[in-house]
Structures are given as C-alpha cells and as structure tokens.
Request: fold
Amino acid sequence: MNLLSPFFNPKRISIPKIFHSTIDNKPFEECIMCKKGLHSSETHYFIEKAVRKYPNGHTDAIFEYAICMECSLEVRDTLSKDSMQRIDEFFSNKLDLMSRWNNFNEDENFKFNDWISNCIVTGKSVDELEEYQIYAHCEGQYMLFSLMPYIISSEVIEDAYALLSEQTKDELDDFMDKYLGPDPEIKKLLKDHKPVFIF
Ligand SMILES: [Zn+2]
Reply:
C-alpha cells in the first residue's frame, strides 16, 4: 500500500516568509475568526493572501489572514450549496491538483517556490501577474506540501466569483467587512479581491 498522499503526513517545512504575516513580520499566530492559537501541533489551518505587485517588483498584501480548518469549514457551510458546487465544478474542470501533487512527489520537488511559480489555472508565470492570491495549508509551525501551496491569478478569482449567487456574494462581503477591512480605503482595494473558500 502506498501511504504517500497529500492528506496523510505530507512533507513539511518551516513556514516560508512569504506566508508570514506582513504586518507582524512573523508567522500568523491565531485564527482570524475564533482566535484560536495556531502553533500547537496538529492544528490545521490555511493562509490566504491577496498580493499586488508594483512595476518596481515590490509586493503588497491587499489582505491576508489565517483561518483554522474548523472555521473555514464553518464558513463554507454557511455559503449556498449551489454556489459552492459551481465553484467546485469550475475548478475541477480546469485543474487536477492530485496529478500536480503526484508529479511534484515523483520528482521529490519540495522547493516551495516551484509550487507557487505559476497560476494553477492559467499556468501564467507569477512574474507576469500583477495581482494574485496565494494559499498555504499549515499544521502548527509547519507548512505542508498537501494540495497547496498554490497561487491563483486575480482574473481567475474574478471568474469564479462571478459564479456565486447574490446571497453568497453578500455573505462573503460580510466576512470581508467583519474580518478584513472596515477601513474605507482598504475596502476600495478589496472590491475586486474576494476570499473564495475553495479549500
Ligand atoms: Zn478558527
């Protein structure tokens, strides 16, 4: 039996800087929703960052957060089933994360930069992208090479967002308002950047 799988004890490394909190310059410490500490072993959580790149090569996080697995499932549960089904179909038609994982594992390639060098949907190089979102799956103080890490370009996020029902869009807006950006300036920036709970 082959026990290697993205879901069973996958390869792990210390959380790379790119997935640290930009504000604190260190790893995220708590879940954005339930405030649970994230560094004890066996606590699974996700990190999502929306990144904007400037012509001089500098990058900025438009938003960023860590969310524990329980809370992310809870949010997913509150979103309409139809919307989530459309999102799942949208992505499953366009990419095969299992094959990607198998290829990296066969090559024993655990250089995280290679995992986040291209949009997983369009294949475009991150160097060509001005805006994109990056995702990581972590456990305690480690980042896992599960189906993540990956990046998705903003154009794809917009296409996915367009598939959501109005009700789901409202719910995601509420999530953004509550947790990510009460500041009107930030809100303006957030307009085109939505968390999409595709984990
Ligand atoms: Zn939580």
Observations:
- The chain has seven helices and six strands.
- The two ends are 27 Å apart (CA to CA).
- The helical segments are 69-78, 81-94, 97-106, 112-115, 154-161, 166-179, 184-190.
- The mean pLDDT is 88.
